[in-house]
Design a protein that fits this description.
With 232 residues, chain A is an all-alpha fold. Chain A is 65% helix and 0% strand. In chain A, α1 crosses α3 and α4 packs parallel to α6. Chains A and B meet through α5, α6, α7, α8 and α9 of A and α5, α6, α7, α8 and α9 of B. Chain A binds a DNA duplex (30 and 30 nucleotides) through α2.
Amino acid sequence: MTKQFSSVWLREARPAKSTGRSRDEIVRAAVELLDADGLDGLSMRRLGAKLSAGATSLYWYVANKDELLELVYDEVWGEMRLPDPTETTWRATASVFAHSMRRLILRHPWTTRLIGRLPALGPNALGAADTLRRSFHLAGFEGLEIDYANTTLTSFVFGITIPEVAWTQAMAETAYHEDSMREAVALLAADYPDLASRMNEVHSADTDAVREMAFSFGLGAVLDGLAARLIT
Amino acid sequence: MTKQFSSVWLREARPAKSTGRSRDEIVRAAVELLDADGLDGLSMRRLGAKLSAGATSLYWYVANKDELLELVYDEVWGEMRLPDPTETTWRATASVFAHSMRRLILRHPWTTRLIGRLPALGPNALGAADTLRRSFHLAGFEGLEIDYANTTLTSFVFGITIPEVAWTQAMAETAYHEDSMREAVALLAADYPDLASRMNEVHSADTDAVREMAFSFGLGAVLDGLAARLIT
DNA sequence: AAATCCACTCGTACAGTGTGCGAGGTTTGT
DNA sequence: ACAAACCTCGCACACTGTACGAGTGGATTT
C-alpha cells in the first residue's frame, strides 16, 4: 500500500565496471541541460538525445527520473566550498556557508524546485551539513541545539533564495515588457500604497544590490540571534 | 520571444455575471483535491470530473493551469489570522504571523511546491504581507529595512517548513518500513557518526515535538536578531 | 415572434511526459 | 566456442495540458 521510501543513496553503488556510458557522464549532461533550460527542459528523451542514446537506455544507470534528480542535486552540492571550522570563528564559517549556498542556488535555479521534493541525503549535502554542525559544536552548542542552529541558518538561506530565484526569473521574462509591470504596480497601488511605492523604489534601484543587502541584513540578524542563544 | 509575465491578479476580474459554474467553486474543489492527493493529484481532467464537467470546460473560467494554481495558492493564504499590529507588540505580531504561516503550510503541504514557482500577488498574500510590514514599521524600522525584516522572517518560515513537509511525507510513506530507515541510518553512520546518532535520537523521540522545538528555537533567534537591529 | 447574440460546454486531437517490457546486440569469462 | 553478464533501445501504455471549433440553451434585441 504505502510506497517504499527510497533513495539512490540507500542502495549500494553500482559496481561501476561499466564499458558503456557512466553515471557521472549522465549526471553532468543532466546538469548542463538543467542549467540551460530549467527543470522543465529536462526530459529523459532530451537527455538521451544529448548523449546520443535512446531515452530508455538511461534506465540502466538510474532507476527512475527522481533518482537522477537526486544525483544531480547532490552533484551541485559538491560546489560548496567551506573553511575548516577549526581555523576560523563559527560566525565566519556560518557566513561562508550561507553565502556559498546562496550562490549555488542562484547558479542553478532549478534546485529551488527540488528542495522539499527530494531528500538531500547525498554525500556532498551531508558533508556540508556536517561541517556546519562541527562549527556550531565548536562554538559551544550542545546536543539538539546543534541541529536547531543548523536548521535555523539553512532555513533562512533556503527561504530567502527560493523566492529570489522566482523573482529574477519572472523579471527576465518580463524584461522587455516593462509596461505590463508598471501596469501591475499601478493595480496594486490601489489597495497597498506602501507596497507599490516600495516596488517602484526597488525597480528603479539596482535590484541585485537590494537583494544582496536584504540577504546580508537577514543573515546578520540570524547570526546575532544565534550568538545570543550561545551566551547563556 | 520572451514570454510575457502574467498573473491572474494583473488582469481585471471577470464580470462574474455567470449563470453556470463559478470560479470560487472551482478553486474550492481544487483545494480539496490538492489536500487529498497532493499537487500531482490535481489534473484538469480529475478536477473536471469532480465537478461533473468536461476537462476543458474549466478553461472558460481560468486561462491555464498555472493561473488556477495562483488562485488556489492565494485562497489558502486567506486562512492567515493576524492580530491588529497596533494592539500588540511587534514581536507578538511577528510570532503569530510565523506560526500561522507554518500551520497553513503544514495543513496544505502542496503549497511548498508552489512557493518559488508562482508569484504571490493575490490579495490575501499581499494583505498578510502588508500587516506584517505595518507591524515592523510601528516597531521602528524605516524604509527598506521594513522589507528586509519582512523578508528575514518569512524566509525563515518558508525555509524551515518546506523541508519539514518533505520529511513528514517521506516518513508517512515509510511508516511501515522502519527497517529500510534503520538500514539507511546505518549506511550513513559509516561516514557521519554524529549525524547518524542524532537521527536515532530524533527517531526515538516524539518527532513532532522536536520539529516544534526547532521552529521555536529558530524563530526566537530570528526575532532576537531583528530586535538587535532595532536598537541602533 | 423571430432573429441575433453571447455565455458556456465539451469531444477531439496533438504533442509531450515517464517508464515497463522484451527482443536484440556486444563484451567478457571460461 | 559457448555462456553469462552487461548494455541498448523500439514499442506501447497511460497520462498530462490545452488549442480549436462545433454545439447548446437562454437572454436580448429587432
